[in-house]
Design goal:
heterodimer; A: alpha/beta; eight-stranded mixed sheet; 31% helix; 22% strand; B: alpha/beta; Rossmann fold; four-stranded antiparallel sheet; 21% strand; disordered C terminus; binds adenosine-5'-triphosphate; binds magnesium ion
């Protein structure tokens, strides 16, 4: 593989969670996460709520400083070999909370034009660019450009945020639940736009979503996270058709039914996710796993190779590995 | 206007000809002449275009819109009370006591300067008059009910210390804490992963039956709507364009917008291919076309579509669609599926 455009190397982030001195407690939000992104590729990221996806995204775009680990952009260590400012113009993020990321006192046209002006574009050019981008996300600039964030619907705000990220002309965009507030038809329009831009400009996406249908549609590869770690990562089709981690299997089984006569009667995964302050020994999933066996509580599983570029951190796959 | 009548005679919610306008240049006509009933213990799912007025409709039922720039006309009754006339103490009792809302955006409901425990406790103290320690116990119980892991520790969390999905569950706990008769749920599970989402949906279904709570459930996820709703309504440009039982609407949508929306579902699309979307964009809300507001985007549009008022197709049993061709569109679909 040629040099990845963006890569994460052993990222770790623990948040303080009360206690003092030796009794100080930490939430292990992201624990030793590594992966690579090829230029033009889309990596889908899924996983239980609270498993560290947004934290991982913030580490990746350098809005949070990792406790340890590095992010590389085109092989250069960000912060040390590549200045943050240069990195920021190449890598943008669309945030999960569409309200929190828009300045309440800025009109939508100014919010989108802000990026380009910061990077030295003239005001009139930046405004023209913002109008064009609002139009491309399906918001008529003459109707929506002069409004403030609270005067838009949830889905309209989300699209402004996508336009705002695109305005920087980035190479990589990290999209955190960026289409979750859109109706299926507008969602289709926005996904079409993202796929068009990928084709036109060779953009690379990290696409975090709870919607497993959307992730399947747009991703080349998918990463499944559980409690701060990578449970499984692999090409989209093999991961969906032959998931190798029991957590991935439960997740896929939990997709809602579309048939009014066959509603879901029982949740496929019971129990609560364990406490991230004091995660279980061995495999972090073993307390809820239906296929738990002897080694699971004793030893943390390695990333077993289950296909050419498909890995699963589960002991069940240790035998398979030699065959693959 | 033919309201969407529920079989029960004394509805929990009765809305007639509701219109909501925001002042401004130009003004925004966010909701246009919406009428519907909701029976106690009934779950109405609302699907619809982004910006079609779903959240504004729900907020009207709680009178949460900015008074100065909003003009509301029509009738809104909840539990026999005229909501548009409520003032002072009665309004405060209505909000959170009789009816409560799970917001699309958690940052609207949760106060960043108080812990989750404090916020839930404060609500139950206000509405149910519990003591401080009883209120905290109720808060803990609520966090456990919505499956927040390590609930005890989370009581002391500020909203920013929780993940998006946990904030969402905390808000559900807050909304249910006073056991409301009416729950307004605005995309309550979009921030949740599939395993937790299905747990919460099953939980809402149980609580709803147990408490006999009426629920209006806005969602973009058709699978979610199918899992929880008794009836469905589809909204477009500020109006209900179609309603009926879940089965009828999912299997035999009569309005072309509903058909387009259901077809834009990703299930079965070949990965990476362009997706079918309803072409075009919704009309400006201050200048809706005469007659059907979907006509400019509709492949089946004809001259009759600009009739005003538009005739409504009535399929009986609370099933109707605001489309001049609804009866033949259904027949067309039948012919296609049998051929
Ligand atoms: N600033 C913070 N301080 C303390 N804890 C935090 C902070 N930010 C996140 N956490 C904790 O880190 C963990 C991971 O949170 P994160 O937001 O990354 O999850 P997520 O996978 O994005 O979840 P969701 O799908 O619900 O958005 C959670 O336990 C969360 O409570
Ligand atoms: N305070 C306001 N001032 C002016 N216009 C507003 C205001 N609040 C909402 N609107 C407009 O009213 C219309 C309806 O908004 P609403 O939030 O109800 O949409 P929605 O159906 O919930 O959409 P979504 O699915 O995207 O959340 C939108 O076009 C929105 O831009
Ligand atoms: Mg998140
Ligand atoms: Mg809304």
């Amino acid at each position: 593989m040629s040099t990845p455009i963006l890569s994460a190397h052993n990222l770790v982030k623990h948040f303080k969670a009360g206690g003092f001195g030796a009794a100080r407690k930490f939430v292990r939000a992201v624990n030793d996460v590594s992966f690579e992104l090829a230029s033009g590729e889309t990596l889908g990221v899924v996983g239980e709520s609270g498993c560290g996806k947004s934290t991982m995204a913030r580490l990746l775009v350098q809005l949070l400083t990792p406790d340890s680990g590095e992010v590389h952009y085109q092989g250069k260590v960000v912060g040390r070999e590549l200045p943050l400012k240069a990195f920021r113009s190449k890598v943008q993020m669309v945030f999960q909370d569409s309200f929190a990321s828009l300045n309440p006192r800025m009109t939508m046209i100014d919010a989108v034009a802000f990026g380009p002006t910061v990077h030295g574009m003239s005001r009139s050019d930046a405004t023209r660019k913002a109008q064009d981008l609002l139009d491309r996300v399906g918001l008529d600039p003459s109707r929506f450009g002069g409004r403030y964030a609270h005067e838009l619907s949830g889905g309209q705000r989300q699209r402004v945020n996508i336009a705002r990220a695109l305005a920087f002309d980035p190479q990589v965009i990290v999209l955190d639940e960026a289409v979750s507030a859109l109706d299926k038809s507008v969602e289709a329009q926005v996904l079409n736009l993202l796929m068009d831009l990928r084709r036109e400009r060779g953009l690379t996406y990290v696409f975090i979503s709870h919607d497993l249908n959307v992730v399947r549609h747009i991703s080349d590869r998918v990463m499944v996270m559980y409690l701060g770690e990578v449970a499984e990562i692999g090409p989209v089709e093999s991961l969906y058709s032959a998931p190798c981690h029991p957590y991935t299997q439960a997740l896929l089984a939990a997709m809602p039914s579309l048939d009014p006569d066959r509603r879901t009667m029982e949740a496929p995964l019971a129990g609560d996710p364990p406490n991230p302050i004091d995660p279980p020994q061995g495999c972090r999933f073993h307390t809820r796993c239906s296929r738990v066996f002897a080694p699971c509580s004793a030893q943390a599983p390695a990333q077993h190779k289950v296909g050419k570029t498909h890995f699963a951190a589960c002991h069940l796959n240790s035998a398979k590995e030699h065959v693959a | 206007m033919t309201p969407f009548r529920s079989p029960n005679d004394t509805p929990l919610v009765r809305v007639r000809d509701l219109s909501v306008r925001f002042a401004g240049t130009p003004p925004v006509h966010a909701v246009n002449s919406v009428s519907f009933d909701l029976a106690p213990g009934e779950v109405l799912g609302i699907l619809g275009e982004s910006g079609s007025g779903k959240s504004v409709t729900l907020k009207t039922l709680l009178r949460l819109l900015p008074e100065r720039k909003t003009r509301i006309t029509g009738q809104v009754e909840v539990d026999g009370q005229d909501v548009l006339a409520l003032q002072g103490r009665a309004l405060a009792d209505h909000r959170g006591g009789v009816a409560s809302m799970i917001f699309q955006d958690p940052s609207l409901a949760l106060d960043p300067v108080y812990t989750i425990g404090q916020q839930i406790a404060e609500t139950v103290i206000r509405h149910d008059g519990l003591s401080k320690s009883d209120a905290m116990a109720r808060a803990l119980e609520m966090l456990e009910i919505v499956r927040i892991p390590s609930a005890k520790r989370r009581l002391a969390n500020y909203p920013h210390e929780m993940s998006g999905g946990m904030r969402q569950r905390a808000m559900i706990a807050l909304a249910l804490a006073c056991r409301p008769k009416l729950l307004l749920a605005d995309e309550p599970t979009t921030a949740l992963d599939a395993t937790v989402q299905i747990q919460i949906l099953l939980l809402l279904r149980d609580l709803q039956k147990e408490l006999g709570m009426g629920v209006i459930f806005v969602t973009h996820d058709i699978g979610v709507a199918v899992e929880v709703s008794d009836r469905l309504a589809v909204m477009y440009a500020g109006s209900f364009v179609e309603t009926g039982s879940v089965k009828d609407v999912i299997r035999d949508a009569r309005h072309p917008y509903s058909k387009g929306l259901l077809a834009a579902n990703l299930v079965g699309a070949a990965p990476g291919t362009r997706l079918d979307a309803v072409p075009g964009a919704p009309p400006p809300l201050n200048a809706l076309p005469e007659g059907c507001s979907f006509a400019p985007r509709c492949a089946h549009a004809e001259t009759a579509c600009s009739m005003s008022p538009l005739p409504i197709w009535n399929g009986g049993n609370g099933r109707w669609a605001r489309c001049v061709q609804a009866s033949c569109l259904g027949a067309l679909a039948d012919a296609e599926s049998t051929s």
